Amino acid sequence: MVVVVQHAACRSRRGTPRRSVGRQRGQSLQDLASGKRFLVVSVHLDNRKSSNAATQKRYQALRAAQVRAVTARVDAINTQHLPVVLAGDLNSWQAALGGNPPHDALTKAGYYDTADAVTQVNTRWTTYNGFARTVAKSASGWGARLDVISTKGLRGAVRFENVLTRTESNRASDHDMVVADLRLP
Question: What are the distances in angstroms from CA 45 to CA 58, 121, 146?
């Protein structure tokens, strides 16, 4: 199963085909091939940044608190213990000033980062392109990942891809799409 928020091969709780999770920020879906159910949750964390270390640390702490609130809510509503796919913009990355507390909070809550998949595609580029006409590989060899797909109750990911076009004069978003190929238990 490839999870994209606009996954066409899923059905909602009411049995109707779903093309978009929409404004609910979460939805119980069913894989048509296997009949297995799972939850999909969308997040977009606070986007403030600061070059002042103390201020940035407060923003990072806020984003980590937002993750803890979301994961606690998911745990509360997930009474059937369905697998969870949480995707979105953390507005933090692995080399951010003040660390990456939102990612750490996801890991502590039992979520797996699908970028650790067996097959990784375009992970040398950041997932944020800023509408730049041309994007370059990260000098460190691993691009900043503001956009994540994390899972809970699944056995990892087969493939993770940062879907990007290196040169694009008319980008649809300031972020690249990220895709993970997952297998339901």
Answer: 13, 25, 10
CA distances from 150 to 57, 131, 133, 156 (A): 23, 25, 29, 9
- Note if the pTM is more than 0.70: yes
Task: Show me where the domains of the chain are located.
Answer: 2-182
pLDDT of residue 26: 66
Task: Identify the segments of the chain with pLDDT beneath 70.
Answer: 1-26
Write the class of the CATH domain 2-182. Answer: alpha beta
Tokens representing 80 are: 């059937």
Mapped to the 3 state alphabet, what secondary structure does the chain carry?
A: CEECCCCCCEECCCCCECCCCHHHCEEEEEECCCCCEEEEEEEECCCCCCCCHHHHHHHHHHHHHHHHHHHHHHHHHCCCCCCEEEEEECCCCCCCCCCCHHHHHHHHCCCEEHHHCCEEECCCCCCECCCCCECCCCCCCCCCCCEEEEEECCCCEEEEEEECCCECCCCCCCECEEEEEECCC
